[in-house]
Every structure is written in C-alpha cells, then in structure tokens.
Design goal:
The protein is an all-alpha fold. The chain has one domain. The chain is built from four helices and no strands. The radius of gyration is 14 Å and the shape is globular.
Amino acid sequence: MSLPLTLGCLWVLIAAVTAMLPMRLQRYPGVPLLLAAPVLIVWTGVVHGWLWSAFGLAAFASMFRRPLIYLWQRARGKHPGVPQ
C-alpha cells in the first residue's frame, strides 16, 4: 500500500477515536485532522488519480459536515451559534 493510503487509513482511525470524545474535547485533535485532510486528499489524487481523490473528498465532507458548514457561514459574514 502506498504512503498516502497508509496515512489516510491512520487519519481515519484517529478521526474515529476523536469522534468518540466528548464535544468539548474534540476541538484539539479535530483541528489538525481538519487541516491534514486536504493535504492527504490531494496527495492521494496525485498518486492514484482524481477518482480516489473524489471519494476521499466525499468522505471528508461527510465526516466534517458541521465544522465545514460553520466555517462556510463564518466566511459569509454570519455568526452562527456553536451547537451544544
């Protein structure tokens, strides 16, 4: 297995463990995961093709849909509340 796929699998395992944490503790490991994902997705696309990158992007958007919606609303100038 190639290095980007190995690191992607490790990323998924760390993200699953992070999801099991209480909401207030998810922020600290979640931010590096959020920043590392695009790098891994692009790297996978360069090595294995755009189709695998598209699958990775869909999985990423599914896992991080709420933080991405929050960041999108902040970028548009809205001030959404943080969910409990």
